Amino acid sequence: MRKLGIALSLLILILIVWVESWINIPHPTISDTSITTLKVDTLSSTRFVLKNNFINKKKEGIWELYTEGTPFEIGYSTGKLSQDILQQQERVFIEKISEKSPSKSIGVIRVLNAMYNRHLDNRILPEYCKEMYGISLNASTKYNDFGTPYQRILNYHGIYDIEHSFEDVEVKGNTAFAIKGKKTLDNDVLIGRNFDFSLGKEFDQQKIIHFVKPQEGFKYASISWGGFIGAVSGMNETGLTVSINAVESKFPLAATMPMSLIAREILQYALTVDEAYNIAFTKEAYISESILVSSAFDTTAILIEKTPTGIDSLHMRTDELIVTNHLQTPSLHPAKVYNEENATQYRAIRLTELLAERQHLSVIDIARILRDTKGIENQNIGYGNQKSINTLNLHHSVIFKPLSKEMWVAAHHSQLDEYICYNLDSVFQGAENYPPPISLSITNKHIPKDEFIETTDFKNYATFKALATKYKNWNYELEKLTDNEIQEFIQLNPEAYESYEIIGDYYAKNNNWKTAAEYYQMALSKEVATLKSKKELQEKVSVTVK
Question: Listing from the earlier edge strand, what are the strands of the sheet with 419-423?
Fold first, then answer.
């Protein structure tokens, strides 16, 4: 009996040590931390400098961040100069993790998160771990119950991957394409890209364009957010670009190297599309992703598709290559009938139409395509529809011109405001001066805002979004909506299926089944964004007509 008690005590001790090893991942050892003793110089309310690193806030709401040095110095400068954004967006991440967790207990959330990410630091390049540790020294202590700052920063880099495992990829609005040769105005290579990773309005409005001069590899620019060192859209000094696009994935049982860090490694170390493929080939992935890579050196683009079980590539057979949110390579593409009712395939058809409208496309033409809100054959499918190339709810939109090392980033999250132009050669030359330039952009090359942003339709859509949130949570027992309020709401976005579904839900909650069914039928007569949404509407109809 005594031996059994000793064995059980030993087993419990081993279990505690094992769990503790998940919960407390040791941070990397840093030989020189002298940068942490330096103070940030405030040049103005929107300009801050730390050693050779600096951050500017443009009037358009974009932050321009420049960092250089060792991985730790880059990380610490990133965290220190963007500390307010880091801490604000950490709150957003914590809310998302808590929302998705099967338990609301902080202790349980921490253990589950630690178990899932228990080997994450061993999957990531040591230099990236040092960079994340530097960032973590500027994280808030407010969330230490969820893990150490270093462990939390590690975990946040898996949120993008985990998010599209949790959610139906059909609701994602990632769209990218590459064109070259005679398809372009300058016989060039051009890449257009809309990126959808929205964790809310606060997250979307704090965009960082991060220009990095690492000790090893190529200098590069990446469109980013607070506390993030991965790459979802970026270009390096050689004119190689990378963008990653979510593909339907099963929920992974353990984290490996986050896809954004695979893309970062490509951005930092690849010159050619073959080198990009080789980097992706050597990494283990736990979700599926389409990676669009273009190279000024090769004057072409390639689609790299990577899943937990395989990798394949698709080269440009013509002068264009289109990527949305589904696999296309022969060995990985599931044997499914091509169905335009899928939002991802619908967008690919629409993109093909727009690219076929004319030859010799310019950068301004690419912006026009990325801003398109129509459906196939120019149908009005309602603003904000996930089948649109511009869903009016994206994190960022960017255009790359690799041969001239230029990039244009949309200032506003709806992609209708100015596209701000940057030239990587000019940026890195200007960054050597002190004080650093007030802005790194090239003003005379900005793409003007779209006229649609000034229209009544766009203003109506902003009102529609606000009322949609309000009406989804409407307490009909306290107050009824009037017929005028209902009709005014629908007229704000009359071709959107959601307009009718929301009102149908309102009547269903009020037990007015007949009227609810009528509105659900009207919703089904519109272009429903996803097959899942369509099935849900059909089920609502079947319930209300019984």
Answer: 320-323, 175-180, 189-195, 396-401, 406-410, 419-423
Chain centre to alpha carbon of residue 536: 27
- Model confidence pLDDT, tens digit, residues 109-122: 444 455 445 556 55
pLDDT band at 456 (very low <50, low <70, confident <90, very high): very high
Selection from 56, 76, 58 nearest residue 66 by Cα: 56
Question: How much is the average pLDDT of 444-466?
Answer: 95
**DSSP labels for 37-77?**
GPPPEEEETTEEEETTEEEEE-TTSEEEEEEEESHHHHHHH
Q: What per-residue confidence (pLDDT) applies to 255?
A: 57
In the structure encoding, which two tokens stand for residue 402, read together? 């690799």
Q: CA dihedral in degrees (497, 503, 505, 507; nearest 10)?
A: -150
Mark out the alpha helices in 101-224 (DSSP H runs): 106-116, 120-123, 126-136, 149-156, 159-166, 201-204
Q: What is the pLDDT of residue 103?
A: 45
SS (H, E, C) 12-40: HHHHHHHHHHHHCCCCCCCCCCHHHHCCC
- Burial profile 341-375: b = 16 or more Cβ within 10 angstroms, e = fewer: ebbbbbbbbbbebbbeeeeebebebbbbbbbbbbb
Buried/exposed 488-500: b ≥16 CB within 10 Å, e otherwise: ebbebbeebbbbb
Tens-place pLDDT, residues 384-399: 999 999 999 888 999 9
Q: Which helix H or strand E contains 291, and what residues bound it?
A: strand 289-295
Residues 6 or more apart in contact with residue 323 via CB below 8 angstroms: 174, 175, 176, 177, 243, 245, 290, 292, 303
